[in-house]
Every structure is written in structure tokens, then in C-alpha cells.
Specification:
Number of helices: 5
Distance between the termini: 20 Å
Structural class: mainly alpha
CATH architecture: Orthogonal Bundle
Strand content: 5-15%
Strand order of the largest sheet: 1-2
Radius of gyration: 11 Å
CATH superfamily: lambda repressor-like DNA-binding domains
Number of domains: 1
Helix content: 40-55%
Order of helices and strands: EHHHHHE
CATH class: Mainly Alpha
Shape: globular
Length: 72
């Protein structure tokens, strides 16, 4: 986790809700805890590359749709 991860823009909650999934639904599909999904959505935890890939595949979007760096 980079030391400036608070600056990471996170759209996971929006995409999850658009897909009609609860945090529990997504966590089960991604094989992680619901607390992990909650922590990612709240910017407390930055997912690994593997987890970000799993989530983007489940939500049928690109990783860049879910997470992005702010424009300078």
C-alpha cells in the first residue's frame, strides 16, 4: 500500500450498487470478507492487483473505472 493511498479516487461503491450487489454479494464472488469490501469502499484499504482484477471482472468494468489517481 502506497503512503499516499488516500488520494486514490474510488468508485467501487457506485459500480457495486449499479450492479445490484450488496457488499456481501461482492465479497462472496471475490472470495474475500465483507469487511474487506467495506474497507476498500471507505478508502481504508487498497486492494491487491489480483483482487482489483477479480472485482473488475465481477462488475464487468475496467480497473480504471473503479480506481484512479487524481488529475494533477
Amino acid at each position: 500500500m502506497g503512503k499516499h493511498h488516500q488520494n486514490l479516487l474510488n468508485n467501487l461503491e457506485k459500480f457495486r450498487k449499479s450492479a445490484g450487489l450488496t457488499q456481501q454479494d461482492l465479497s462472496e464472488s471475490a472470495e474475500v470478507s465483507r469487511k474487506s469490501i467495506n474497507a476498500i469502499e471507505n478508502g481504508v484499504y487498497v486492494p491487491s492487483t489480483v483482487l482489483a482484477l477479480k472485482i473488475s471482472k465481477i462488475l464487468n468494468c475496467r480497473i480504471e473505472d473503479l480506481f484512479e489517481l487524481p488529475k494533477n
